[in-house]
Amino acid sequence: MRLPLVACVTFLLIQPTNAFEPAAIAQLTSEKSCPDCDLRNAKLSGLDLSNANLTGANLRGADLRKANLTGANLDAADLSNANLSRANLVGADLRKAKLNDTKLNHANLTKANLTDANLNRANLSNADLRDAHFAGASLVRTIIQGTKSCELVCSERCRIQPSQELCLKHCQNSCLTPPDSYQISKQRSIPPTRHHHSSRNQFSRAPEFREGRRYHERDYRDRDRQRGPILQVPLSSRPAPAGFDGESVTDPCSNICTPVPIFFGTNRTRDATTDLVNFGPDRAKSLQLGRAIVTVPKGGRRRGEITRPTWWDLYIRRVPAAGDLAKHFTIWQKGYVLYTNDHDFISAVHAHMREAGDFKDHAFVFVHGYNVPFDAALYRTAQIAYDLGYDDLQSDRVPFGTAFLYSWPSAGDMKGYMYDEDSARQAVDYLGAFIKLILAQSGAKQVHLIAHSMGNVVLLNALQGIAIPEGVALNQVILAAPDVDVAEFEKLSRAVTRIANGVTLYASAKDLAMQAARDVRRGMPRAGDVTEAGPLVVDKVYSIDVSAVSTEVFSIKHSEYADKKELLDDINRLFQKGEEPPHSRNTNFLRQRRGSSEYWRYAD
């Protein structure tokens, strides 16, 4: 029987357009593979879909709250209007995915690939977006307040309307484009490199605008040739930081910044390119000695903060990639010296110490922790030296003593924990030789040591069997959130307490490196952890629970140190006066007793 045309149309209109295929869900849950499936409005909340293949799937309006989509392939999938609140999308492939009006609040998108994804009007509030890739993504009217690495979202080649107050308020360094946003060509996208993770070079390049118009392609290429990550381009071709005239060899700063010489040792491999100073994550079989000069701005920063150029600085304000001397930490391009022997290195140290101010007899060695690239380690060492210093009669900042850095071959990658642990163990002998050289020949009478997280593995083992020369004191040893097994720490610390004037353990329940260590050890506490019973207590070690403050002052992967600087003040008193026990130098350190032992806890 032939139906009338009106009846056919009516029949088609009343068919449900949002129904999913039950067989598709059965296939997905059993095989974790359902490419191009119709899963519209499917109820998938809480399901384990890790590494599932959902390429091109239709998931419009699907309920995926708290679903585990770790490593899932959602390439070109349609997730419009879906609910992915608190979903785990670590490492998920979301290239060209449609995420319009999608709820992603509190979702974990660490390492996710959202290249060319459409996130218009999506809710990303309080999402974790660290190391996620947004090259070519569209984020018109996207809600992004409270996100971790919010700057990353705004700094990728995204499109956010300039009139959006939200973007201006919560993403100070957003990428603003004209209201008639266009799709940015991917051909000029420069993927982030593995070895360099400072904020200026994590992102793909973005187009620039002059007087509201797009740069010509030729202008863009010229600009791109000028820019590049510090330590990765030949020194002869890298632009000088703003405010530097290129003539002075001894002081690039004039009156706008302070040069901080950092004498370093490393067993990282160096790029063999001529005139290139680039130490990466690979392991060398020898100790390289050198000196770098880091400039610290005199104003515009808080104590403990490391300021580096943001996307906004680079592409809107047109600050050189090296940084603005008046506003940013920079590595002075003419300040690098690599020494071929101990004698030349020590001669340079002696020359510096003669002009090192009131604390010229003091030196400290900083050993960084897990997930740290070389250039970032230089910045942190300079920040510590500068912030522990003092102002002279002319109100110029004099950094504390002589700053040494030992940089072992960290991968500089969140996924590189096991690689870093192996690298730390293999760096022990090199750090031992470096410390012996400083103790025996630097001329410093007071030597202090600071290690953070996995850097404690290197330091504690390197100090085993070290003899202290006559006339030199191994004064204070600061062990910040040590990522060391408890039993190993108790054993290794005995040798350290015998040769050091004071040993302080800063333990924290909130240290990010400690959280990473617990994650790979099924929650087992480390020496730098704070359990319900308190921090680890070891004979002759001052254990302080600083969970209420933060140990991020030692961390490299975070550009600023919260809002409290108590640890810097405490280290200052320790280094300069050696005041002990902790409550004698800071009344906020409250003495706590646990049986016959005692520890201290910071309290406001």
Mean pLDDT reading: 78
Q: Please bin the fraction of helical residues.
A: 10-25%
Number of domains: 2
CATH architecture of the largest domain: 3-Layer(aba) Sandwich
Query: For the CA atoms, what is the radius of gyration?
Result: 27 Å
Termini gap? 85 Å
Low-confidence stretches: 5-18, 150-249, 556-563
Let me know the number of strands.
18
Task: Provide the CATH top-level class of the largest domain.
Answer: Alpha Beta
The outline comes out as globular
Number of helices: 15
| Largest pleated sheet | 12 strands, mixed
Strand content: 15-25%
Q: CATH topology of the largest domain, what is it called? A: Rossmann fold
Give an account of the 3D structure.
This protein is an alpha/beta fold and 604 residues long. The protein folds into two domains: 1-189, E3 ubiquitin-protein ligase SopA (Pectate Lyase C-like), CATH 2.160.20.80; 342-602, Rossmann fold (3-Layer(aba) Sandwich), CATH 3.40.50. Helices cover 24% and strands 17% of the residues. It has 15 helices and 18 strands. It has helices at 5-13, 22-31, 150-155, 165-170, 217-226, 311-315, 342-353, 374-387, 417-426, 428-441, 455-462, 486-499, 512-519, 566-577, 582-585, and strands at residues 209-210, 213-214, 257-270, 279-297, 330-331, 337-339, 362-367, 390-391, 397-398, 402-407, 446-452, 473-480, 500-507, 530-531, 534-535, 542-545, 589-594, 597-602. Strands 3, 4, 5, 6, 7, 10, 11, 12, 13, 16, 17 and 18 form a twelve-stranded mixed sheet that branches. Strands 1-2 form a two-stranded antiparallel sheet. Strand 12 (473-480), helix 12 and strand 13 form a beta-alpha-beta unit. Helix 9 (417-426) packs parallel to helix 11 (455-462). The radius of gyration is 27 Å and the shape is globular.
